[in-house]
Amino acid sequence: MTNEGDNSLHNGHRRGAAPAALAALTALTAAGLAIAQAGPGVTAVGPLRRRLFPRLAGLGRPDHVALTFDDGPDPASTPAFLDVLAARQLHATFFMLGSMVARTPQLAAEIAAAGHEIAVHGWAHRYTILRSPWDVSSDLARAHDAVSAATGQRPRFFRPPYGVLSSGAILAARRLGLTPVLWSCWGREWVPGATPDSVFATVAAHLTGGATILLHDSDCTSPAGAASAALGALPWLLDECSARGLAVGTLAGHGLGPAPDGRKSG
């Protein structure tokens, strides 16, 4: 028979074990949720993305290149990009930050009026994997509404800041009817000391038919001069595409989605 003292000690162990088990379960649940939230971030690895997730990498029509810009609209730099594209009679896809659109809604409207495709880059330029799914959802919805209101267009594509997806970002994009698209080659003009020569060489090294090119039309999240480096390289890149017999246009024209009016756009 167990005496009263033994029962008290045994019950004390049980009472202490329950909170410990609950704490361990809570920790495991939190770890599992964190892994689930960050898991899609592996697609930020370029070679892996291009090989296993070609549509996410923006691989489209083999005779076409999709030209995309992030981080605008920026009155200090975006108009110069628009001038180059207008002179070439080309259209591109602009992934806009909601916070930048709020500052210059008229410029966002001008981009859309010029026939360019409008897309969403989020409101704040922050990693989605470091934010809760609820915060990401609110951020993306806010950006979507701002971009739609300023441009009169309903965006169809989404690119997360830094190109790093999370499960929360994927679910939020799905609810808004946005298709996530990253890129297959980029200029890395945000690297300190980048020049038009370095941007051109970096893009050209991975440029193929079907590629999606990423450049930045703003310095708002990059070192000063990044957008200028991209702008200087842009005419050379367009000449290179022409020399290779590759048409240049939007993501919709790349075969990754419909144009706003249902026609293919280029």
Describe the structure.
With about 270 residues, this protein is of the alpha/beta class. The chain folds into 2 domains: about 5-40; about 45-255, Alpha-Beta Barrel (TIM Barrel), CATH 3.20.20. It has 10 helices and 8 strands. The strands form 2 sheets. Strands 1, 2, 3, 6, 7 and 8 form a 6-stranded parallel beta sheet that branches. Strands 4-5 form a two-stranded parallel sheet. Helix 3 links the parallel strand 1 (about 65-70) and strand 2 (about 95). Helix 8 packs across helix 9 (about 225-245). The longest helix has about 35 residues, at about 5-40. The protein starts with a helix and ends in a 10-residue tail after the last helix. Mean pLDDT is about 85; it is low at about 20-40 and about 260-265.
Query: What is the rounded Rg?
Result: 23 Å
CATH topology of the largest domain: TIM Barrel
Count the E strands: 8
Gap from first CA to last CA:
87 Å
* CATH architecture designation of the largest domain: Alpha-Beta Barrel
Q: How would you classify the helix and strand content by structural class?
A: alpha/beta
Quick one: CATH superfamily of the largest domain?
Glycoside hydrolase/deacetylase
Number of helices: 10
Chain-averaged pLDDT: 85
Helix content: 40-55%
What top-tier CATH class of the largest domain fits best? Alpha Beta
Q: Main beta sheet, described?
A: 6 strands, parallel
Written as H for each helix and E for each strand, in order along the chain, the element string is: HHEHEHHEHEHEEHEHEH
- What's the shape? globular
Sheet-strand content, in percent, reads: 5-15%
